[in-house]
Amino acid sequence: MDDCPLAPVVTSDVPSAAEEHLERLLLIGVGVAAAALTLWYVLFAAYNRRKGAEALRWVQSACAGKGRVLDSHWLTSSRLDARLQFPSRSFENARVTMKFRPRAMPVHWLISCFHKQKETLTFEADLGGSPSFHLEVVRHRWCAHSRGVKNRARDEREWDIYEPGPVILTTRTHWKQDPTAELNALMTVRQQDVLQVRFRPETPQFSATIKLDALDDPRAAAGFLTTLRELAAGASAHRQ
């Protein structure tokens, strides 16, 4: 009996209609997502730019008659940098950096919301002379609450609240008896809504950070500039 040759098996690489439909839906989904992200970026980057322009007007209003904004440029979609000029030698190479929430980047924006990131303005400048000390003042607020305590027990608990004075932590081997500049900086920061103040011999020799929304009031903005001048004057007196 003769052997019958087997018929060759033919395979087809042509995708089925279901696969084509799935690929088409995938491409449409990718296109829609890309368009949505692009639209999100454009809208919220423009929103941050409007906030930046408004904040620059606050700065210019605070500097009226005492300084002016030279130029500004965006470092990122959430960070604006501007150079300032003052007629006196109290501040040299002055600049402000405004940090907004990264609204144009959805993931970064959600992370910043989760961490309750504040929008801030940081003023940096060199002083008339180099400070002879390093000083960093950070304003912190603490709060406490009891967990797992019944209402009756919480009502019966008595809390003793004390308001301490300024505390200075130093790494100096020999501490001087009259820390005028340090105490003035501490008391000024305590009275104003300033988050951080830093003095150092290297450039920038002086910097101060404040919450951005604290400057929407013209009087508060002018008060912040006055605070900066007082801090710089205290450092200058400390050098003499």
Structure description:
The protein has 240 residues and is α+β, with helices and mostly antiparallel strands. It has one domain. It is 40% helix and 20% strand. It contains five helices and seven strands. The chain has helices at 17-62, 106-114, 151-156, 180-191, 218-239; strands at 68-76, 79-85, 92-99, 120-126, 135-138, 194-199, 206-211. A seven-stranded antiparallel β-sheet has the order 1-2-3-4-7-6-5, covered by helices on one side. Helix 4 packs antiparallel against helix 5. The longest helix is centred in the N-terminal third of the chain and has 46 residues, at 17-62. The relative contact order is 0.13.
SSE-based structural type:
alpha+beta
Strand-residue proportion: 15-25%
Gap from first CA to last CA: 119 Å
Uncertain stretches: none
Q: Compute the average pLDDT.
A: 77
Order of helices and strands: HEEEHEEHHEEH
Number of discrete helical segments: 5
Please summarize the sheet with the most strands: 7 strands, antiparallel
In total, the number of strands is: 7
User: How are the strands of the largest sheet arranged?
Assistant: 1-2-3-4-7-6-5
Whole-number count of domains: 1
User: Given the C-alpha coordinates, what overall shape results?
Assistant: elongated
Helix-residue proportion: 25-40%
Instruction: Tell me the radius of gyration.
Output: 30 Å
